[in-house]
Amino acid sequence: MTSPLPLSLFTSAQQNLAGRIRRTPQMDIVLDAGQTVTAKLESLQISGSFKIRGALNTVLSLQSEELAKGLVTASGGNHGLGVATAGSMTGASTTIYLPRNTPASKIEKLQNIASEVIVDGDVWDDANNLALEDARETGKTYVHPFADESVIAGQGTLSLEILHDNPDIDILIVAIGGGGLISGVASAAKLIKPDIKIIGVEAVGAPTLKNSLDAGKLVTLDKIRTKANTLAPRQSAQVNFDIISKNVDQIVLVTDEEMQASANWLWRNCGLGLELSAAAAIAALRSGVFTPPVNEKVCAIICGSGSDGF
Question: For the structural domain made of 7-49+149-302, what CATH number should be given?
């Protein structure tokens, strides 16, 4: 990227989404060691995750001719649900490509709302290649899950809500898949509160952006080794790498077992039904891979619903 995203990009996205999505609540959670963390509950969002923010903001920006061609994307599940929901809200047909590691529950949900669901490829990158080919051959409008300015702007509306409702937050902890969520959240948060710290969390089995930052350039993982499929692209994109390089203070890694334990804990103690990736931010705290300074207020984004904690 040659220039930072302006705050107006995020406020415009917030205006676009107003009245169309939920302003999700924030809830204080006391962890095992007595630490209080504020949780932003995007698991209660329309379509089941934060993904509707970026998907709908993008779809609302399209011309009628682009909508008429139909929408196509690839997803680990949540972005597909966001695009399918946005399509149903705007009257556009939707084709969703999913890798074979997508949970059966998300495939079923998508089959109920998308025009067409195609399950093919081992991981998201494979499904994405098929979606891009479909767009080239049919003229459908492709909606990228993370490497798109309007998607990033939509995800960044989370920071506007969090810091409006809770301006004393010092640290935001954000799960990372392709990087769209943390790109938007970090950009918007730093514009509002430049000294806020942004901590990213990836799966040990899919350290896509941590490895890229360590290498100083985009890298492609040779293999994905996590069950948290929504955190598991083999490669991010340059736009996300550039934003994260500038705005994210640290990336930590959590294991599948730590995410599973935290998903179970959040179900038992808070009644939150989450997928593994949505427990990643809390797992970073409970496992000790990130320990915030004493007296700093922490907000963890709970990014999506699911049944992994049941």
Answer: 3.40.50.1100
